[in-house]
Design brief:
238 residues, 2-enoyl-CoA Hydratase, Chain A, domain 1, 46% helix, 21% strand
Length: 238
């Protein structure tokens, strides 16, 4: 979906979002309230420039409009794989972006992520997965690594990974699989404006992804393992 079409459906009360070099920034009105909007388009990779532009927009929102809701529109092929960006320390730029989102949440800004096209690897980890809650459209492509690349890295035959992907969402891309794993809260259909309003009204400050993954059967070990670690820590400190 083109971002202009998405914005019209998300913000029927109006917006002033502009695109510059695949970076989206602006404000919109939701239920009479102004919200900040940032994002990316064109499957753009996250290089140092876009990482800093997003971080700057978040810092400006915190400085000028305390507690204003923030919506992140996500369409990225992941971090930019260039020697220049690596030499400039792209990992630090992306960590800075993630920290800015974290600080915004801690300061009372409801942060909602929406994957409307692609969401891959580090570009997704430091944006949508840092939000209070992340959502997706049905046609969204979400994955950390393709099965071909996974086969090369793990030395597991691609055919075996394809077979595992049929029953285990950890190996399979797609919005439905990330829903089962708890990585996204829900898939938005039909009235996107109502979905967004409901998400903003239900913003939860606690991280329930492991709990959601356990409930939905997509990640059966994350919750019990984390609970066991916490119980061990409590016992050792008492």
């Amino acid at each position: 979906m083109e971002w202009q079409v998405l914005a019209a459906r998300l913000f029927p009360q109006g917006h002033d979002i502009i695109e510059r070099d695949n970076f989206l920034r602006g404000t919109a009105t939701v239920d009479g309230q102004s919200i900040a909007v940032i994002g990316t388009t064109g499957h753009t990779p996250i290089g140092v420039e876009i990482a800093m532009a997003q971080a700057d927009a978040i810092l400006a929102t915190m400085r000028e409009f305390p507690r204003r809701p923030l919506v992140i529109l996500i369409d990225t092929q992941g971090q930019r794989l260039r020697h220049r960006d690596e030499m400039l320390g792209i990992n630090r730029y992306m960590a800075h972006l993630g920290k800015c989102i974290d600080v915004a949440r801690r300061r009372g800004h409801p942060v909602i992520g929406l994957v409307y096209d692609q969401a891959l690897s580090g570009g997704f980890i430091t944006s949508g997965l840092m939000a209070n809650a992340c959502y997706a459209l049905p046609e969204a492509e979400i994955r950390v690594m393709g099965l071909q690349a996974m086969a090369r890295i793990t030395k597991v035959p691609e055919e075996k990974l394809m077979e595992l992907a049929k029953s285990n969402p950890v190996f399979a891309p797609g919005a439905e699989n990330y829903l089962h794993m708890g990585g996204i809260e829900a898939i938005w259909r039909d009235d996107l404006a109502s979905c967004l309003l409901q998400a903003l009204q239900q913003t939860d400050t606690s991280d329930r992804r492991s709990e959601r993954g356990w409930e939905r059967g997509g990640r059966k070990m994350a919750l019990p393992v984390s609970q066991a670690v916490l119980e061990t820590r409590d016992v050792s400190s008492s």
